[in-house]
Amino acid sequence: MNVGQISQSSIKVANYANSIKKVGSAKNPLTSDPSGIQIGERLLMSVKSLEMVGSNLSNGISMLKTADSAIQSTGDVLGRLKALSIQANNGMLSDSDRSLINEEAQQLLGFIEDQSSMKFNGTPIAQGDSIDLAVDDNGGSITIVSPDFSFNTLGLADLDFSTMQGASDALADVDSAIRTLSSQRVSNGSQQRILMEQYDANISEQVNTYEAGSRLTDLDMAQASTELAANGILSDVGIAVQVQANALNSSVLNLLQ
Question: Which residues partner with 27 through β-bridges?
Fold first, then answer.
């Protein structure tokens, strides 16, 4: 067997080994397309940033949903306060009756005050605070404003249901608080919708960016498997030819001895 044949056989074996390595790693070697692979790796790295943006948006949505839950609870309590103010504004009740109504009303007002001090991960969510959220991987941000249903904003300070005049004044104040709370909930819901749309767009960008990066860096398994099979056959043939040639050379040498 001459040197050229040995070289060709070695190349076939080496090609087969490289094919095995490629299939095993499932990645394109850098030498196959250096610029394309670098672009692909940069795209895949940007997915990590997009994932963090998605996490920020998700946290913002959760915060606004928590605030909305508190708004609903406050609205239910305001509905009860309105019923109590109507009940207390009844000339047939005694001062003792109104005192009992006022006692319940003050407890409900205390609940509303507690709700207005609610926090989400340490951030107040019921006092109209502005919060910045990163919404892209280039430093862009969006400002959301938490709803403001604090005790003072709702105008519920110093309500007194123990007299008819106090009950009448309380009815007007509670009605005003209900309107304010309703407006706050509409604004809160609009912000939730915006964040949810941005979150959906972020997830789509993550998927598309990952797929684009993977196409550049990941191995085409169908093509690689075909090459592996072909190189395996060529390697086997080369080895068989080399073995046969070695055996033939050995026979010739034996005849010459």
Answer: 218
Model pLDDT for residues 191-211, shown as the tens digit of each residue: 999 999 999 998 898 888 878
- Secondary-structure percent of the chain, ordered helix, strand, coil, rounded to 5: 75, 5, 20
18 falls within a domain: no
Share of the chain above pLDDT 90, in %: 43
Contact 24, 221 (CB under 8 A): no
∠243-246-251 over CA atoms, to 5°? 125
Q: How far apart are CA 36 and CA 160, in angstroms?
A: 74
Could you tell me if residue 36 is inside a domain?
A: no
3 assigned to some structural domain = no
One-letter amino acid at 245 equals: A
DSSP 156: -
| Distance of alpha carbon 16 from alpha carbon 134, whole angstroms | 49
Percent of the residues in the chain that have a pLDDT greater than 70, as a whole number: 69
Residue 224 in any domain: the answer is no
Is the C-alpha dihedral spanning 110, 111, 117, 122 positive or negative? positive
Of 162, 157, 156, 152, the residue nearest 103 (C-alpha):
162
Domain count within the chain:
1
